[in-house]
Each structure stands twice: as structure tokens, then as C-alpha cells.
Design goal:
With 320 residues, this protein is α+β, with helices and mostly antiparallel strands. It has helices spanning 2-30, 79-146, and strands at 51-53, 57-59, 157-158, 183-184, 192-193, 206-209, 212-216, 223-226, 233-234, 242-246, 249-254, 257-262, 265-269, 276-277, 285-289, 292-297, 300-307, 310-318.
């Protein structure tokens, strides 16, 4: 009897072991459908499908298990890190480019500044050289006229223009002009008293009227025509004056007298070497210099020349 009971329990246990787990799973998946036919489908560890028809009929042929394909995974490792690395690299590249451009800009600005400074220095040097050349030309011109050793064609005087002889013919400057040496008992009321540099050294006063210079004598009623005292100033040039250029200076000439502008007036100066005039007054003296004829007037020497197609005279440096 006991043996039958034990065998019965064993059979029941085996049946329970075989059917109960599947039925329990089916109830959990299907909500516990109790009936004659139970159908269950679920995915176990993948895409698995199991159909159970009743107890004891199990269809496992439709089971579909899909395993993960690690090579096709949608998760891309290190994408964020690679992006950050790329961004950091791009930023560093831009920084290097900006640094290079900044260096180039600084170097370019420095180069431009250096080039401008060099141009200014070259311009200053050119201007200085030009001034020096002009100064040298002026100095050579002055030396040409003033150097006693600069002898023209071996004669005892120096001059710029070639010698061209023509006879000395004195010239008068109108009815109001008089040569040096004439005496007058009276002078025109338009004559003015002169003031000049050496006025205190002279005992008698000087007067000026229309290009003529007078000086008082011992007799209060007499006046003598004299050479213009150097340094005397007049307010207006006499009628009929001419001008001549020597170097960069303009001189004015009338009746054997040279003037130079001084302030608002004109000052009497000595005859400048190199000046060219077309007329000499009465009172000149012709001298010979190794066959060349020079005219001496008021301490200056004049060489006969041809200038602009006319007979003229040039003031020369004489070493006779």
C-alpha cells in the first residue's frame, strides 16, 4: 500500500515538474488565461516566440532569437571626446593663425615705420645735398669774382664775360643830372639833407636831388657835385634807373651809382663785381691791362663787353 502511494506521488511530481513551469510562464505573460487552450508568445533573451496549445503540445519551431551585433551598435564611443578634440585643435589652430597674423601685422607696422623713416631720412639728405650744392655754386661764383688768382685769359683782372672792345663814351642822365666836380652857388629847394653811416666823419653836409649828390663847401654859398657817399639812403630810386643781377641779389644803377634795397628805402653800395651796365658817366679813366682797355670810375673797374647785342660794361676784379 505504501509502495502504491509512493509511486503515485512520484508520478504526480514528475507530471508537475514537466507541465507546471510552462503553465506558470504562460499565465505571467498572458495574464493567466485559464481555459482549455492557452497561447503564449514572449521574447526570451532576444526575439523568441513560443506557442503552447493546451498542456503537452509545445511548438518551439518559431523561436527567433536575435543577438546583439556589436559591430552595428548605435552607440558611438568617444564621439564627444573626438568632437572636443577637434574643436580644441581648431581653436588652437586659429590661435596660432591669429598669433602669426598679429606678428606679421606688428612686423609689417614696424617695417612700414622703418620705410617711412628711411624715406624721410633720404628726403632730408637730398634736401641737404641740394642746399650744399647751391651753397657750393654760390661760393664758386663768389670765388670766381673775388679771388685775385682767378685771372681771365692771363690778364690782370677776372671777369665772367669775354672782352669786347668798344670806345668809352660818357653818358648823361638828363638835364637835372650833373657830372662829378661841378660847383653851384645854390641847389634846388627839392634837395634833401642826407644821413648816412659816415656822416660824422665829414665836416660838411651831403644833399641829394634827382640822382645827383651835393656837398657843402667852405663857402656857405657853394655846393660841389660829388660821388654818392656809400651807406647813404634814399626813399625812391631816381628816374631812368636800371637793374642788374649778381648771384641772387638785385642791384639798381643810375648815374654811376649802385643801390641795394634796404628796408623801405635804397642804400648806396660799392660797385658789385659781376654787375653789367650799359652806360658810364663822365669822369671815367681808360687804362690798359696787357692790351685790354678797362674803364676806371669811382674806384671800380669796368671791362668792355657785348651783352644782348649791345655795348656794355662789366664790373671786374682788377689786380693791376
Amino acid at each position: 500500500m505504501k509502495i502504491k502511494i509512493i509511486l503515485s506521488l512520484f508520478v504526480i511530481s514528475m507530471v508537475a515538474i514537466f507541465f507546471v513551469p510552462d503553465d506558470c510562464d504562460a499565465q505571467r505573460m498572458r495574464g493567466g488565461n485559464r481555459g482549455g487552450n492557452r497561447s503564449s508568445s514572449y521574447n526570451r533573451g532576444g526575439n523568441s516566440s513560443r506557442t503552447i496549445n493546451g498542456r503537452g503540445n509545445t511548438n518551439k519551431s518559431n523561436t527567433n532569437r536575435t543577438y546583439k551585433n556589436k559591430s552595428n551598435s548605435n552607440v558611438k564611443k568617444n564621439n564627444v571626446d573626438r568632437g572636443n578634440v577637434s574643436n580644441n585643435k581648431g581653436t588652437k589652430d586659429r590661435e596660432r593663425v591669429n598669433d602669426r597674423e598679429g606678428v606679421r601685422d606688428n612686423e609689417g607696422s614696424k617695417d612700414r615705420g622703418d620705410r617711412q623713416e628711411n624715406r624721410d631720412e633720404r628726403q632730408g639728405d637730398r634736401q641737404e645735398n641740394q642746399d650744399n650744392r647751391q651753397g657750393d655754386r654760390d661760393e664758386r661764383r663768389d670765388n670766381y669774382y673775388d679771388n685775385y688768382n682767378n685771372i681771365y685769359h692771363g690778364y690782370n683782372y677776372s671777369g665772367y664775360n669775354p672782352y669786347y672792345y668798344h670806345p668809352y663814351s660818357p653818358y648823361g642822365w638828363g638835364s637835372y643830372w650833373y657830372p662829378v666836380g661841378l660847383f653851384f652857388t645854390t641847389i634846388a629847394v627839392s634837395a634833401i639833407l642826407l644821413s648816412y653811416d659816415d656822416n660824422e666823419a665829414d665836416e660838411y653836409n651831403y644833399y641829394y636831388d634827382q640822382g645827383v649828390y651835393y656837398q657843402g663847401t667852405e663857402s656857405k654859398d657853394n655846393y660841389k657835385v660829388v660821388q654818392a657817399p656809400e651807406g647813404a639812403e634814399i626813399t625812391e630810386l631816381p628816374s631812368g634807373y636800371t637793374s642788374t643781377e649778381v648771384g641772387n641779389t638785385t642791384y639798381y644803377y643810375h648815374g654811376g651809382v649802385f643801390y641795394k634795397q634796404s628796408g623801405s628805402g635804397y642804400k648806396v653800395v660799392s660797385a658789385p663785381v659781376g654787375a653789367i651796365v650799359y652806360k658810364l658817366p663822365e669822369g671815367g679813366q681808360e687804362i690798359d691791362s696787357k692790351g685790354n682797355k678797362l674803364i676806371k670810375f669811382n674806384g671800380a673797374y669796368y671791362q668792355p663787353i657785348m651783352h644782348d647785342g649791345e655795348d656794355a660794361y662789366e664790373v671786374v676784379k682788377y689786380n693791376g
